[in-house]
Design goal:
binds adenosine-5'-triphosphate; 14 helices; 8 strands; binds magnesium ion
Length: about 300
Amino acid sequence: MYEQALKLRKIMAEKNASTSRTGNVKVYCVASGKGGVGKTNLSVNMGLVIQSLGKNVLLIDADLGLANIDVVSGLYPKYNLSHILSIGKSIKDVILKGPMGISILPGASGLYDLANITSVELKILIDSFSSIANDFDIIIIDTGAGISKNVISFIRSSDEVIVVTTPEPSAVTDAYALIKIARKYCDSIHVIVNKTDNYKEAEYTIEKLSRVTKKYLNLKINYLGYVLKDNTIYKSNMAQTPFYIKYPNGLASKCLINISKKLIYGEQIPLEANSNSTVDGWFAKLMSLIKTNVGAM
Ligand SMILES: Nc1ncnc2c1ncn2[C@@H]1O[C@H](COP(=O)(O)OP(=O)(O)OP(=O)(O)O)[C@@H](O)[C@H]1O
Ligand SMILES: [Mg+2]
């Protein structure tokens, strides 16, 4: 009884401490219709790229069924999201420092049934996220696949959604189903095409998706870019080290650097962001050359 009262008091204190967002922090929800398209790997590594661009990033593992940001990052957290609800842990105690100084809020996998939490509990979690939101420049929320009630709640709590798909028709169809719902809550819908064999396949995928969102939803999606199928991701996962750390010059890393810069700076990449990375500059140039040549073929 005493424990319950204590837990409630802590939760209420945290809720009261929650400040309304100043607008400085940008919250991105990474989602997909189909599972296994690469959300977790892209969220972790995009977080690291953005952190290395000088932003203060918080990565939230909100896959309430099968959390695994900690596994991908090689972290062994003592506490996770479930402890906010089960023992009233403060969100600040649960956040840990990951590689490159990124902050990570680990999820629970199998230990606590977060996949079936009540809407009151879900609200407590989302409220506690808001209480620390202003400590960060960017928050990236990695969600589970599909359009469950939980995923929709995280989409609603975010500023913008990043939909991940692969070129497979089933993944594209499921991405469309997700976008149809997400657009009710978020104005900006970004799309990344992952695990593509080449630039042309990704362009073809995005053209198909854009056509249907334009026709049936009157919505223009924002294509952030593509990530090539790259075995360095598998190797990094086996080593439990993010691929941007293990293979910073690998194909997947280079693709993700371009995507992250586009997300943060928009189309125009400021000179300062390029000046400390000649490899990036070279790669961007090479990519645009390839793009022009392929386009001309
Ligand atoms: N660009 C890529 N090239 C090759 N393999 C990839 C790529 N992106 C992801 N993978 C592989 O795809 C698998 C699924 O990745 P990940 O766990 O990140 O997907 P997810 O969308 O988070 O899955 P879930 O829906 O289960 O949460 C992993 O085995 C990962 O190594
Ligand atoms: Mg995942």
